[in-house]
UniProtKB/TrEMBL annotation:
CDD domains: RNaseZ_MBL-fold
Domain named Metallo-beta-lactamase: residues: 66-267
Record protein name field: Nuclear ribonuclease Z
Top-rank taxon, per record: Eukaryota
Pfam families in alphabetical order: Lactamase_B_2 (PF12706)
InterPro entries, per database record: Metallo-B-lactamas, RibonucZ/Hydroxyglut_hydro
Length: 298
């Protein structure tokens, strides 16, 4: 059954189902919150990492996240940015760190200047422009790397890596004191291990899947990817024309995803959550078993 409008969607008024959804998802040990509806608003939140990917219209839960990664300049992904910064300032929180494609960095700076003129507040934040392949150390144990995505305007995806210091194999049998002595004598006893934890695509055609530079995206523990269209009423060609991905393309690339979990987002508002769930259930079993959907608000 096709959803005509929000008011006709009975689920919208069903308190028990909205209460259930507000609990959010748990994907590979990470709580995930936020919402993502194509053309309306996208903000995907990993509260345990203090991170939000895109800001949508700035849902309340996004405000407490320290790091924000913006994929591109469409308003359903960036519209709430000034509110995010202003509200953090109002609550006396630390200025956030915001990553944007370098191609829109100057526009974002101008946007904040216009708001400063109107609002007479500082709108403090740290803005970092990213290019494909750029890396940035977020914390001692986390870094981000930007990857190429394929949308109708300049866009970027982001991979979050965990960074750990591991004891080198040759010292594995030594005691704690022996290792300490070695370290004091200037020997490098550890090496750095990085592993891709979360990849976020923002809006893109499925071309990012076959980009040879994007192998880590397909290895990330969790791949958050858009799947705007899920049924035969909308063709792959239509999805591609608007810079989006069709669920059937994800299915046809099933063998490429080494991810522990896929989290699908950005479904068109034409679908109900039941329609999305049944489309996912019909994916190849190797994918359906590890695919989650962010259905909040559908
Ligand atoms: Zn979008
Ligand atoms: Zn877009």
């Amino acid at each position: 059954m096709r959803k005509q409008s929000t008011t006709e969607n009975v689920d919208f008024f069903d308190k028990s189902s909205s209460a259930k959804r507000s609990v959010g998802l748990l994907v590979e040990g990470y709580p995930v919150e936020g919402l993502s509806i194509g053309g309306q608003e996208t903000c995907v939140i990993f509260p345990s990492l203090r991170m939000a990917f895109d800001i949508g219209r700035c849902p309340q839960r996004a405000i407490s996240q320290h790091y924000l990664f913006i994929s591109h300049g469409h308003l359903d992904h960036i519209g709430g940015l000034p509110m995010y910064v202003a509200t953090r300032g109002l609550y006396g929180m630390n200025p956030p760190t915001i990553f944007v494609p370098v191609s829109i960095k100057e526009s974002v700076e101008r946007l904040f200047n216009v708001h400063r003129e109107m609002d007479r507040s500082e709108l403090k934040h740290k803005l970092i422009g990213m290019n494909v392949g750029d890396e940035f150390q977020i914390r001692k144990d986390l870094k981000v790397k930007a990857f190429r995505t394929y949308h109708v305007i300049p866009s970027l995806g982001y991979i979050i890596y965990s960074v750990k210091q591991k004891l080198k194999q040759e010292y594995a049998t030594l005691s704690g004191n022996e290792i300490k002595e070695l370290r004091f004598s200037g020997v490098e006893v550890t090496h750095t291990m990085t592993s891709p934890e979360i990849a976020f695509t923002g809006d893109t055609t499925s071309d990012f899947i076959v980009d040879p530079d994007n192998t880590d995206v397909l290895k990330a523990r969790i791949l958050v990817m858009e799947s705007t269209f899920v049924d035969n009423a909308m063709s792959i060609e239509h999805a591609r024309e608007y810079g989006h991905t069709h669920l059937s393309e994800i299915s046809s690339h099933a063998d490429k995803f080494q991810n522990k979990a896929l989290l699908l987002i950005h479904f068109s508002a034409r679908y109900t959550s039941k329609e999305v769930e049944s489309a996912i259930a019909n994916m190849p079993a190797t994918l359906a078993d590890r695919t989650y959907a962010l259905l909040e608000g559908l």
